[in-house]
């Protein structure tokens, strides 16, 4: 795992942010000449870019400056963008936020809410109905012959939470208890790796992996057997660098908070990529303390310190 994450860092720097130059520089008042926003590109980057474009144009109009969205292939790249100050605003998962907040001066400003309350989601460990693995007990008994698939190394529901659970039941992936442990890259890829019989068992978010794959017609519900599902996980944050002008950050925060009400034509298509009932969603404020539970779980991951 350690070598994988380190490799991702250097690849991220060279391929994603190497040409950004000084685009994220601030003036003496902490205001950029161009706002740069980094986010993980998801399993369908084309659809994401199309849904984000109207919001990008909206931000440019409201802020009176150019706005650039940088799409990455993993959360590690987003963390690197913050580390190297190549971005001002970033979309993170709860786990990648905990990783980034260890050494980076950032503050969570926005998260997604449903019906006026902070949204939650779940982690799932699953297999194909043809695998012959019917329970966690079967998984434990056959672990030495099983290939396990996580999503992204910095994913909460696709890595941290299922890894922590497996460790508590004596299946710590670091101890070579499985035949092989790999990363698929994202949640939907983890699902497809299982249904195509490339791996025996996968880990992903219920809502952003299994359900999205089903809605897109990539898999059928009866192809998957859920072995375990986590307790609710706190929603993902959008963060801002602390060296940004505070009034400028507040303005950005308010644009997000009012987006569902003021610009539903911009907000709903983006939410529809993630949720079947986008009209129930909006943006809400978030505090760092909401992620203390994730920090506690993450403290048990031995390679946590390699992400600086």
From TrEMBL:
Name recorded for this polypeptide: Phosphate/phosphite/phosphonate ABC transporter substrate-binding protein
The cross-references to InterPro entries, in alphabetical order and at most eight, read: PhnD
The family database entries (CDD domains) matched by this protein are listed as:
PBP2_PhnD_like
- What taxonomic ancestry is recorded? Bacteria, Pseudomonadati, Bacteroidota, Sphingobacteriia, Sphingobacteriales
Q: Which PANTHER family match?
A: PHOSPHONATES-BINDING PERIPLASMIC PROTEIN
Keyword entries, A-Z:
Signal
Recorded superkingdom: Bacteria
User: Which family does this protein fall into?
Assistant: Belongs to the phosphate/phosphite/phosphonate binding protein family.
Q: Which residues form the signal peptide?
A: 1-18
């Amino acid at each position: 795992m350690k070598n994988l994450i380190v490799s991702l860092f250097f690849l991220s720097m060279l391929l994603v942010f190497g040409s950004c130059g000084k685009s994220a520089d601030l003036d003496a008042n902490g205001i950029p000449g161009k706002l740069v926003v980094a986010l993980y590109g998801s399993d369908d980057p084309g659809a994401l870019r199309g849904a984000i474009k109207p919001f990008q144009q909206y931000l440019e109009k409201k802020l009176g400056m150019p706005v650039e969205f940088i799409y990455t292939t993993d959360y590690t790249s987003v963390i690197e963008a913050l580390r190297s100050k190549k971005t001002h605003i970033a979309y993170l998962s709860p786990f990648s936020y905990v990783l980034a907040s260890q050494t980076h001066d950032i503050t969570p400003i926005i998260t997604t809410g449903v019906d006026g309350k902070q949204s939650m989601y779940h982690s799932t460990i699953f297999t194909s109905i043809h695998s012959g693995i019917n329970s966690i007990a079967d998984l434990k008994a056959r672990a030495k012959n099983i290939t396990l698939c996580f999503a992204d190394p910095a994913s909460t529901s696709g890595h941290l939470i299922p890894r922590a659970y497996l460790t508590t039941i004596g299946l710590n992936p670091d101890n070579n208890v499985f035949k092989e442990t790999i990363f698929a890259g994202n949640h939907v890829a983890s699902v497809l790796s299982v249904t195509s019989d490339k791996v025996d068992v996968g880990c992903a978010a219920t809502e952003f992996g299994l359900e999205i794959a089903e809605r897109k017609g990539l898999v059928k519900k009866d192809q998957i057997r859920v072995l375990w599902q986590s307790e609710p996980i706190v929603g993902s944050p959008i963060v801002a660098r602390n060296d940004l002008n505070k009034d400028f950050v507040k303005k950005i925060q308010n644009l997000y908070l009012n987006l569902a009400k003021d610009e539903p034509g911009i907000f709903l298509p983006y939410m529809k990529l993630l949720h079947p009932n986008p009209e129930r969603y909006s943006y809400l404020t978030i505090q760092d303390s909401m992620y203390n539970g994730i920090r506690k779980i993450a403290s048990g991951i031995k390679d946590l310190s390699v992400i600086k």
